């Protein structure tokens, strides 16, 4: 028996539009992003992939995206579970910086190392920095684990146990699960699901607002690669993410 898992990156955010490194900074969706989120919900309804339960990060752009998608799919009533473990990768001292200026200043090799290498985190973001989450009430309970920077490997470490112990049991119980999260937290999950190597994951980019569907078996592994419900739009969106900063 297989059950459906839908992965959905939030729609375009205000800082995606401005080309700024975002991470844990809690920015909202743009008008375009809200449209992408609603379209994602329409795609779910049109293809009959209707979620029974929603998992989101605790960041507003993912929550807004889920709300708009579920409204469009007429599934606003499903139970919701939120966790910081689905948050975007914490971007350390890069949070708030312009991607094009950072590329210019540090060069392509360093820029790509910070953006897409598996195990090199950006420099730490001090708690006194204006883009720090040190005093953000939503992280009060996780103080010992609140990061000041993360590489993708750190995201895998905080996310995969949550996938295995919390999300997967819902799939095993026969539910269709929607996970609304972020470019890099979803890259971590896709890496795990598809067994992508530490090197090859650098080439994977997740477009905004495009539902990606997996069939998950009893053993927790997918029956194959994920399928975007709108493959052409997803390919164009992924290429745009890859080109950021250029
Ligand atoms: O800034 C960020 O938090 C992420 C996602 O928008 O950017 P990138 O794709 O460069 O990792």
TrEMBL record:
TM segment ranges: none
Pfam family, one: His_Phos_1
Keyword Transferase: no
Stored Gene3D superfamilies: Phosphoglycerate mutase-like
SUPFAM superfamilies, per the entry: Phosphoglycerate mutase-like
Pathway given in the UniProt record: Carbohydrate degradation; glycolysis; pyruvate from D-glyceraldehyde 3-phosphate: step 3/5
Site label Transition state stabilizer, positions: 182
Protein name, per record: 2,3-bisphosphoglycerate-dependent phosphoglycerate mutase
Originating species: Leucobacter exalbidus
Lineage, broadest ranks: Bacteria, Bacillati, Actinomycetota, Actinomycetes, Micrococcales
């Amino acid at each position: 028996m297989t059950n459906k898992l839908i992965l959905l990156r939030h729609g375009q955010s205000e800082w995606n539009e401005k080309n700024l490194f975002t991470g844990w900074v809690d920015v909202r969706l743009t008008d375009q992003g809200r449209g992408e989120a609603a379209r994602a919900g329409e795609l779910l309804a049109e293809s009959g992939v209707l979620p029974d339960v929603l998992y989101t990060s605790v960041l507003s752009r993912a929550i807004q995206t889920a709300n708009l998608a579920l409204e469009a799919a007429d599934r606003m009533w499903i139970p919701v579970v939120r966790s910081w473990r689905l948050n975007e990768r914490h971007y350390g001292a890069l949070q708030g910086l312009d991607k094009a200026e950072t590329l210019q200043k540090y060069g392509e090799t360093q820029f790509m190392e910070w953006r897409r290498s598996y195990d090199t985190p950006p420099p730490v973001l001090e708690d006194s920095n204006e883009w720090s989450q040190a005093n953000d009430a939503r992280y009060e309970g996780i103080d010992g684990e609140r990061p000041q920077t993360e590489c993708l490997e750190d995201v895998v470490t905080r996310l995969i146990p949550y996938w295995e112990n919390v999300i997967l049991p819902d799939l095993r119980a026969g539910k269709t699960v929607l996970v609304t999260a972020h470019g890099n937290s979803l890259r971590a999950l896709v890496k795990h699901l598809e067994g992508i190597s530490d090197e090859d994951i650098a080439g994977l980019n997740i477009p905004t607002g495009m539902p990606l569907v997996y069939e998950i078996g009893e053993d927790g592994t997918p029956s194959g690669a994920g399928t975007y419900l709108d493959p052409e739009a997803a390919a164009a969106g992924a290429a745009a993410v890859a080109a950021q900063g250029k």
